[in-house]
Amino acid sequence: MDLGAVTQRSALHAKPSGLVLQYGTAGFRAHAGHLDHIMYRMGLLAVLRSKQTKSTIGVMVTASHNPEEDNGVKLIDPLGEMLAPSWEEHATRLANAEEQELPRELVGISEREAVDLQQDAFVVVGRDTRASSEKFSQSVIDGVTALGGLFHDYGLLTTPQLHYMVYCRNTGGQYGKATVEGYYQKLSKAFVELTKQASCSGDEHRTLKVDCANGIGALKLKEMQQYFSQGLSVQLFNDGTKGKLNHLCGADFVKSHQKPPEGMEMKSNERCCSFDGDADRIVYYYRDADGQFHLIDGDKIATLVSSFLKDLLVEIGENFNVGVVQTAYANGSSTRYLQEVMKVPVYCTKTGVKHLHHKAQEFDIGVYFEANGHGTALFSKAVEMKIKQLAKELEDNKGKAAKMLANVIDLFNQAAGDAISDMLVIEAILALKGLTAQQWDALYRDLPNRQLKVKVADRRVISTTDAERQVLTPPGLQEVISDLVKQYRLSRAFVRPSGTEDVIRVYAEADSQANADSLAHEVSLAVF
Ligand code: NG1
Ligand code: ZN
After folding, report:
1. What is the pLDDT of residue 202?
2. Is the minimum distance from the CB of 103 to ligand 1 under 6 angstroms?
3. Where do the domains of the chain lie, and which CATH numbers do they carry?
4. Does residue 224 register a pLDDT over 90?
5. Using alpha carbons only, what angle is made at residue 420 by residues 316 and 335, rounded to the nearest 5 degrees?
6. 132 lines ligand 1 (CB under 6 A)
7. Peptide bond preceding 474: is omega within 30 degrees of 0, i.e. cis?
8. Half-sphere exposure of 70 toward its Cβ, with a 13 Å CA cutoff?
9. Taking every annotated instance into account, which residue ranges of this chain make up the domain Phosphoacetylglucosamine mutase AMG1 (predicted)?
């Protein structure tokens, strides 16, 4: 390890002394003014992780749905997954080492993780459209090359596209070609094949309005559009040409305010969706004939997807185990519907897609979505092989179902939740089933709910258990919350420290919006 080169270059990306940041659920996120040293150091860390795993590692520069002034960075592990927890700790330690301690930290991590320093390293880099992202991806590359690593800079990409690239590169091209073109082709081919079978839903051409949060999703969807235009035409709004990233638009805005984004005309019963700033989340919505807004969130996406998959399996005559993974934020009605009506086992994990992703990998077919619209469906290798075999062998309706399922497997991003991929899956399912957004929405009725943020001096005073549904500390708080919950019908409430913002999040649901609001308010007072 040429520590001289590392130190010399580090001076160009010097850490503001005393600044402490943490690798959270979505990597590092902060105001862009605080991040240059983090970018350089994550380039260094990616080289060590690449040497240790003898694989390509990804580094994505983005702060997703945060304001334009923020930025962030996260590492992507060999199978396109989030970074392993022990390395998250190394990331935090490396980020917070003062300049003179940096070489010692690097040596320490290499020793603890038994990194073979002679091994080659390869790192792929992607970035979103933020003004600070281009310079930051150069800082990452500076880190990579300071430690002698090789790299490929993909430039502008959605987060899930970079996950896809890493997965492709580490599976010998079996999953797909590790190019943007390869991504477009793989997904579009599966989508067009699928929707060809939807002739029964009439010949009217399908259109969808997409709010792109003024982010990278707009650029990529524009490029990709021509590949799937036979099956769907998309109308893009908030495409970044006028508005500000994530400002009054995007999936996070729509979900948390439960209202439509600015910058998009919505006529009654038009199907609309929103991506977030790095296009890994998607929510749907529409206005009914009375002009009322209806949100179709990640929970309803999970329900649509798992019911479609179950129907196909029944048709094919295969009995794979299908599971749905949610978090505490899943609407109580969705959990009840999945368990009681659809008879699908439902599991709850801690917030953060890495937890859901890992749980979903335990099933033959694992569908996971956070209520905010971040998710995908995972298929075990054995299931994928079996289905693709059956798609060749079976005939008639069984054969048709097996072919559909084979295409659905190809259409879902197996590395990460992906707004573009999810959008195409949803559009294909709606077309195949001949469903309107209203009919989809009517599967069950969401319980009214409210999310609040509470600023506290130190959010770490609250710790939780039972997939964040129960408070452990401070003592007594859980009892207060439980007592408040008992005063409402169909109610539930929990609090947890956010992993991405310096706040405590409060969630409540109840039989009416007024009651959900009031329960959330009372719980937030108890947190103070
Ligand atoms: P935090 O800030 O830990 O609540 C938020 C989202 C997560 C996840 C991460 C990463 C909610 C309530 N929380 O986490 O689901 O998406 O950001 O982006 O939506
Ligand atoms: Zn995102």
Report:
1. 52
2. no
3. 3-156 (3.40.120.10), 182-291 (3.40.120.10), 449-527 (3.30.310.50)
4. yes
5. 60
6. no
7. yes
8. 18
9. 178-283, 297-434
> So what's the pLDDT on residue 337?
98
Query: pLDDT tens across 103-120, in order?
Result: 999 999 999 999 999 999
One-character DSSP codes across 96-141: HS-GGGHHHHHHHHHHHTT--TTS--EEEEEE-S-TTHHHHHHHHH
Please give the distance, rounded to the nearest whole angstrom, from the Cα atom of residue 135 to the centre of ligand 2. 20
Name 367's Cβ contacts closer than 8 Å, sequence gap at least 6: 302, 305, 306, 309, 322, 323, 324, 325, 360, 375, 377, 378
Query: For 64, how many CA atoms within 13 A lie in the half-sphere containing its CB?
Result: 23
pLDDT score of 471 more than 60: yes
Q: For ligand 1, is residue 25 a contact (CB within 6 Å)?
A: yes
3-state secondary structure of 170: helix
Phi, psi dihedral angles at 445 (to 5 degrees): -105, 125
Provide the 10 A C-beta neighbour count for residue 66. Answer: 24
Give dist(CA 37, CA 95) in Å, integer.
8
Q: Rounded distance, CA 155 to CA 526, Å?
A: 46
- SS3 for 31-73, per residue? EHHHCHHHHHHHHHHHHHHHHHHCCEEEEEECCCCCCCCEEEE
Note the pLDDT tens digit of each residue in 434-458. 999 999 999 999 999 999 999 988 8
What does the alpha-carbon distance between residue 143 and residue 183 come to, in Å, rounded to a whole number?
28
Closest ligand relative to 159 C-alpha = 2
Give all strands of the β-sheet with 272-275 in edge-to-edge order.
233-237, 207-211, 272-275, 282-287, 293-296
Tell me how far apart the alpha carbons of residues 65 and 213 are, in angstroms, rounded to a whole number.
Answer: 8
Catalytic residues, which ones? 64
Secondary structure class of 16 (helix, strand, coil) = coil
Determine whether the shortest distance from the Cβ of 24 to ligand 1 is under 6 A. Answer: no
Neighbouring residues of 111: CB distance < 8 A, sequence distance ≥ 6: none
Alpha carbon 213 to its chain's center = 15
- Work out which ligand 1 atom sits closest to the CA atom of 65: 18
Q: Which residues contact 225 (CB under 8 A, 6 or more apart)?
A: 233, 234
Whether residue 500 is annotated as binding a ligand: the answer is: yes
Does 70 appear as a known binding residue?
Answer: no
Cβ neighbours of 55 (radius 10 Å): 17
Residue 498 tokens read as 């956010």
Which of 25, 253, 348, 506 is the best mutation target for the ligand 1 pocket, counting ligand atoms within 8 Å of the beta carbon and taking the most?
25
Helix 36-53 crosses helix 3-10 at what angle (to 10 degrees)?
160
